[in-house]
């Protein structure tokens, strides 16, 4: 029973291509995390923990890059779609607040 692909909804937050790119990146990260789970399950020696830690750090970095990709795409798309300068400023302020809160 395979999963159905996600339906990409059109909107003004991100373009369809930006969403597709981000979803592909997240799918790769999901695969990395499945690999980490297998490493944890099979860990038998202290050196195995080193490998687990290395793969966890790589997955964390990949997720950080996905976060930056999301915010970068948001800046570009929402700024371009703004009706006027005030709307563009408000969009930039929202994204800056996300950076302050989560980065």
TrEMBL record:
What CDD domains does its record include?
CsoR-like_DUF156
Q: Would you tell me the protein name for this molecule?
A: Metal-sensitive transcriptional regulator
Q: Which family does it belong to?
A: Belongs to the FrmR/RcnR family.
Against InterPro entries, the record matches this protein to: Metal_Tscrpt_repr, Metal_Tscrpt_repr_sf
Tell me the classification of the organism that encodes this protein. Bacteria, Pseudomonadati, Pseudomonadota, Betaproteobacteria, Burkholderiales
Source organism of this protein record: Massilia solisilvae
- What does the record list as coiled-coil region(s)? none
């Amino acid at each position: 029973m395979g999963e159905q692909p996600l339906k990409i909804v059109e909107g003004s937050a991100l373009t369809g291509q930006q969403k597709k790119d981000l979803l592909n990146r997240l799918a790769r990260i999901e695969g990395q995390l499945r690999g980490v789970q297998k490493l944890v399950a099979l860990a038998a020696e202290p050196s195995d923990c080193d490998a687990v830690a290395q793969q966890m750090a790589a997955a964390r970095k990949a997720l950080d890059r996905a976060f930056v990709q999301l915010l970068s795409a948001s800046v570009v798309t929402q700024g371009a779609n703004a009706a006027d300068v005030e709307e563009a400023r408000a969009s930039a302020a929202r994204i800056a607040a996300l950076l302050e809160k989560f980065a």
